[in-house]
C-alpha cells in the first residue's frame, strides 16, 4: 500500500431500523417506523458503500465498481486499473477511494489519493496527473434503466479493458464493460457539496487562496491577475473555474506548475 494512502479513513457501517430489545408488544406506529428504515442489503455486501443514483450525491469519498466488489484503483504512475475482487462485506481499499467535487452542471471531478485529478488523454486512456480541473478532468454520470455509466469530456464512456484490466474511455456506447456503480459511504442525508479548503470563500478570495498555494516567488508577494470577478463567475458556471484560475496565474507567471 502506498504511503500516500495511509491517512485515508474507511467508512463505518451504519445500520438503521434495529428493533428495541425491551419492548414485547409491537404497535402499529413501530411497524411503520420499521418499514420506513429498511436496511440496505446491497450496502452491507459492500462494507457500507451504497449506490449513488443522483449527481448531488457524487461528493466526498466515492469509489467506482466495475464487476462485483471490484473497484477502480489508482497506480503511482498516474494510470488506473481494476483491483482484485473483495470479499462480500468488505469495502474498497484506500487506493480505490477517490474524492469527488462538483464541476459544473451535471458533472463532477475526481481526485485520487495521490492528489491528482482524473482525466482522459486524447487516446482515451484514463489518467490522473493533473493539478487542476479543466475540461478533460470533467465527468458526467449517466443513469438509464437502473444502470450507470460515466461519460468523459470526449463523449466516450469509461470502461475496463478485459485483456489487462486497464481503465479507458474509448467507447461511444455503454455496454457490458462500461456499466459500473458509483458508490459512497457518507450518510445519505448529508447532501452538502464538498469543496477544497481553497474554495471555502467568495471567488475573489478563492483566487488569492490558490495564488498563495501555488506561487513561486521567493518574496511571497501576491501577484494577482487584474481580470474581473465576472470572468471567474462565468467560469464557475461553465465548470472551468480551475482552468481559468490556472490560466490567470500563468499570465502573471505566478504558478510553479505553469510552463
Describe the structure in your own words.
The protein is of the alpha+beta class and 259 residues long. The chain folds into two domains: 41-184, Trefoil (Acidic Fibroblast Growth Factor, subunit A), CATH 2.80.10; 197-251, no CATH class. Helix content is 18%, strand content 21%. The protein has five helices and 13 strands. The strands form five sheets. Strands 1-13-2-5-6 form a five-stranded antiparallel sheet. Strands 3-4 form a two-stranded antiparallel ribbon. Helix 4 runs antiparallel to helix 5 (241-251).
Record keyword descriptors for this entry.
259 residues; alpha+beta; Trefoil (Acidic Fibroblast Growth Factor, subunit A); 2 domains; 5-stranded antiparallel sheet; two-stranded antiparallel ribbon; 5 helices
Amino acid at each position: 500500500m502506498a504511503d500516500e494512502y495511509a491517512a485515508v479513513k474507511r467508512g463505518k457501517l451504519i445500520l438503521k431500523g434495529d428493533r428495541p430489545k425491551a419492548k414485547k408488544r409491537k404497535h402499529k406506529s413501530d411497524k411503520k417506523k420499521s418499514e420506513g428504515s429498511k436496511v440496505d442489503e446491497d450496502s452491507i455486501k459492500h462494507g457500507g458503500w451504497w449506490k449513488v443514483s443522483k449527481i448531488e450525491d457524487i461528493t466526498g469519498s466515492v469509489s467506482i465498481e466495475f464487476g462485483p466488489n471490484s473497484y477502480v484503483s489508482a497506480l503511482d504512475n498516474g494510470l488506473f486499473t481494476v483491483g482484485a475482487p473483495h470479499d462480500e462485506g468488505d469495502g474498497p481499499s484506500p487506493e480505490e477511494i477517490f474524492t469527488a467535487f462538483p464541476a459544473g452542471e451535471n458533472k463532477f471531478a475526481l481526485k485520487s489519493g495521490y492528489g491528482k485529478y482524473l482525466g482522459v488523454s486524447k487516446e482515451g486512456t484514463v489518467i490522473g496527473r493533473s493539478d487542476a480541473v479543466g475540461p478533460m478532468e470533467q465527468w458526467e454520470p449517466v443513469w438509464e434503466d437502473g444502470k450507470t455509466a460515466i461519460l468523459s469530456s470526449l463523449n466516450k464512456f469509461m470502461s475496463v479493458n478485459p485483456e489487462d484490466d486497464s481503465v479507458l474511455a474509448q467507447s461511444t456506447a455503454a455496454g457490458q464493460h462500461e456499466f459500473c456503480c458509483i458508490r459512497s459511504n457518507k450518510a445519505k442525508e448529508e447532501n452538502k457539496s464538498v469543496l477544497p479548503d481553497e474554495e471555502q470563500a467568495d471567488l475573489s478570495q478563492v483566487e488569492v487562496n490558490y495564488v498563495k498555494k501555488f506561487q513561486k516567488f521567493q518574496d511571497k508577494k501576491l501577484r494577482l491577475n487584474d481580470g474581473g470577478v465576472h470572468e471567474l463567475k462565468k467560469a464557475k458556471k461553465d465548470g472551468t473555474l480551475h482552468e481559468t484560475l490556472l490560466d490567470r496565474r500563468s499570465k502573471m507567471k505566478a504558478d510553479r506548475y505553469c510552463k
